[in-house]
Amino acid sequence: MAISQAEAQPSGFLDEEIAEFRSNRDLIKEHLDTTQRLLTESFSKALSPEFSAKLQESLKVNQLYRGNQTGSSDSSKPCIIIVGQTKSGKSSFINELLGGTFVAQSQSPCTARVTRLTYSDRIYVLVRSKTGEQIGDVQYLEKPTIEEDLVKLKDEDRENDELISSTVEAGIKCEFLRHGIDIIDSPGLNENSSLDSLTLGAIDSFLPIIIYVIDSNSGITVAVQKDLTTIKKTVLGAEVFYLVTKMDVSKDTEQEANRPAQEIEEEKAERVFSKLQRLGYISPNETRDNATSSFASRVGK
Fold first, then answer.
1. Sheet holding 240-245: strands in order across?
2. What does the alpha-carbon distance between residue 4 and residue 90 come to, in Å, rounded to a whole number?
3. Are strands 79-84 and 182-185 parallel, antiparallel or unpaired?
């Protein structure tokens, strides 16, 4: 499944999908409003406060109502959340998805912050607190790339609780984002508790699209398993799309293995897919051919 297939859709395709998403979102919100009103007003007259609270918890109303927690000023937007270990190819994938070099690579997960990419006619970067308030001034940029020094924390800021738990919002002029989808670029999980909290807050948002990026050369490591378990525990029933990167095979490797590159790439993808199945992340009834809604691989960095 090549990423370019998504970009090859008719120009109005994404607009239609976003319109349908917003319609469904508004319908869900309407039902949530009604449920919340019944629980807090009508039912509360007949039920004890303790039982009413327990009922709300069992129905997960507050969890569904929470909305996006990444500090964006527009929490109603659908968002694609890119998660994965360090150097797994997240930034490279985002750049390919957006059709340009918008995110600098080689960010350190211990110092980088969660970054939300949103559409803007004028390129800018700003920092938001964990409650959404803007911190400091907006920086307007001439170049479209969000450089690493705009995302990572400076050495003197690593003890600043407000900045550690802040998020970076980057406005870029990109056709993909113009349709109303934001992208959240997250550092790897299990590196910093504050960063983990922000990333998991985004995952536990209102109807997120979660893409977990896996380096085919490393495969399903213990750290990857820990990430996936944490994600599944954070959002019960969460649908995760698994993207396997770095599938390319060098000429030297091809010659050493005495096998065609395509055969080696297929083997790498199958190895990751099979382990995801054995661990229960992908249904045992699925194959790579029919699991296109949850699994894909791409050649590249």
1. 134-140, 124-128, 167-172, 115-119, 182-185, 79-84, 209-215, 240-245, 295-297
2. 16
3. parallel
Sign (positive/negative) of CA torsion 157, 158, 159, 161?
positive
pLDDT at 18 over 70: no
CB-based burial label for 22 (10 Å; 0-12, 13-18, 19+): middle
How far apart CA 284 and CA 286 sit, in angstroms, is 6
Q: At what angle do helices 193-203 and 222-234 cross, to 10 degrees?
A: 50
State if pTM tops 0.85: no
Q: How many CB atoms lie within 10 A of CB 294?
A: 16
Q: CA-based Rg of the chain, rounded to a whole angstrom? A: 21
Name all domains of the chain by residue range, CATH numbers in brackets.
Answer: 13-65 (no CATH), 79-297 (3.40.50.300)
Give the model confidence (pLDDT) of 250-261 as tens digits. Answer: 777 766 677 888
φ/ψ of 254, rounded to 5, equals: -60, -40
CA of 15: how far to CAs of 10, 120, 172, 177, 247, in Å?
10, 17, 19, 11, 32
Chain segment 173-186, per-residue pLDDT in tens: 988 888 778 898 88
